[in-house]
Amino acid sequence: xxxxxxxRQEGSLCAQHCLNNLLQGEYFSPVELSSIAQQLDExxxxxxxxGGVSSEEYRTFLQQPSGNMDDSGFFSIQVISNALKVWGLxxxxxxxxxxxxLGIDPINERxxxxxxxxxxxxxxKLGKQWFNLNSLLMGPELISDTYLALFLAQLQQEGYxxxxxxxxLPDCEADQLLQMIQVQQMQRPKLIGEETAQSxxxxxxxxxxEQALDINHPFGGTGMLDEDEENFQRALALSRQEIDMxxxxxxxxxxxxxxxxGGHRSEFSDSVLQNMSQSYGTPQSEYLSSEELRRTRxxxxxxxxxxxxxxxxxxxxxxxxxxxxxxxxxxxxGDMSEEDMLQAxxxxxxxxxxxxxNTEEKK
Length: 363
Hints:
9% strand; alpha+beta; 13 helices; six-stranded antiparallel beta sheet; rod-shaped
């Protein structure tokens, strides 16, 4: 349909678009139509002046705005009719009694001009097919012969005034081309505003879908930047480190608590032995059991007490084997830090293990 001339709507210049689409070319401009409207206004003023320039009717007429045009670009049916007279064309009201008496089938006409309120558009036959050349459409709309009468009746029902264009229209390229070929239209052209609104709705819908996709798959696809992925991996690593640190702190607190509880020395010793076996690669079976360690420490205490009695001295705390209570030098509620308590507990454990190893070697 590229050969068909079709002006799209600009401002309120629908009368200009209607005439140019009818004649299939840029025949009229707003300036030319304004000139015709001013000429009509002058003719009306002269008729009113015949009744006397001092009459109330004449003064009222001069104060009223023009009925043939306004600042928006609207032009009256009188302007359109006078513009068509230049080409020898005449407008007849479609539903007038005079025309209805003729009994002419609409498909035998050449063109129609339709008006509703302040909007004008053309329906014209080009070649052997009818087209709706409404300037509000994105392009010409094909109308079949069987649908033409129904289309005009629908317009009348909606309140349109329909005018039949009588006379020979100027020759045009589209009319000559469509005499030889026929057009097929698969989809009706959209209104100008309809296409813009649909594009906007599609963009909004696409944005919503992308947001939903990002929520469901935050790290999939190409939408994830390398920097964001790197930050995410770093956050996971830090999270794992925090969990490991929490586990280690829990183990340390438990070891300190066990070392500070005299009644649970054997359990702490077992824990120390297990950690040492894991740290130095030595199987736990090579070390003494907790019961053997307890007996060894008890024998060591008795030996120390015997030596002290022989010398007539009370065993000094510094000569005693380092136990959980005197190694820490304070009770659990003291002022020692956790690090000092841990160090004292480890020293006690290491000394106990060394003594046990020495005893084992002597055996």
